[in-house]
Amino acid sequence: MASATHKDRTLIAAIGDEDTITGLLLAGIGDIDIHQRPNFLVVDSKTTQEQIEERFTEYTARKDIAIILINQHVAEDIRGILDEYSAAFPTVLEIPSKEHPYDPSKDSVLKRVKLLFGD
């Protein structure tokens, strides 16, 4: 029964800088649903924290999204919301960007794993 509720989650959503989103769109993750909502957000200097939070909240509520990829430097802007998010689906993965290297000490998923295993 649980698999029936998750079988419709077929999309990957992405929140990140222009280079990251462009690469992911070229790889084929882009989608616009019947309500004209894209599954990606390009974050630049004009994007507000509120816009990022709204889009993250929208993606977590959508039943067609299985994974949310977010650049780690963008995730830092909404760290409070990310740390509070605990649902299994959609899964949130922080990824590096070209300009910002990955820092495992800031990754919310790795923090939870360390807490679980007591490291």
If you had to describe this structure to a student in words, what would you say it looks like?
The chain is an alpha/beta fold. It is built from six helices and four strands, in the order H-E-H-E-H-E-H-H-E-H. It has helices spanning 2-6, 18-27, 49-61, 72-75, 79-84, 108-117; strands spanning 11-16, 40-42, 65-71, 91-95. A four-stranded parallel sheet has the order 2-1-3-4, sandwiched between helices. The termini are far apart.
> How would a crystallographer describe the biggest sheet?
4 strands, parallel
Q: Classify the beta-strand content into a percent band.
A: 15-25%
Summed up, the helix count is 6
Weakly predicted, low-confidence segments:
none
Query: How helical, in percent, are the residues?
Result: 40-55%
Intertermini distance:
34 Å
Give the neighbour order of strands across the main sheet: 2-1-3-4
Structural class: alpha/beta
In N-to-C order, the SSE pattern is HEHEHEHHEH
Mean pLDDT: 88
| Total count of strands | 4
Radius of gyration, whole Å: 14 Å
Backbone shape: globular
Summarize the entry for a quick read.
The protein is α/β, with parallel strands linked by helices and 119 residues long.
Features:
alpha/beta; 4-stranded parallel beta sheet; single chain; 119 residues
Q: What topology emerges from the helices and strands here?
A:
Layout: H1 2-6, E1 11-16, H2 18-27, E2 40-42, H3 49-61, E3 65-71, H4 72-75, H5 79-84, E4 91-95, H6 108-117
Parallel strand pairs: 1-2, 1-3, 3-4
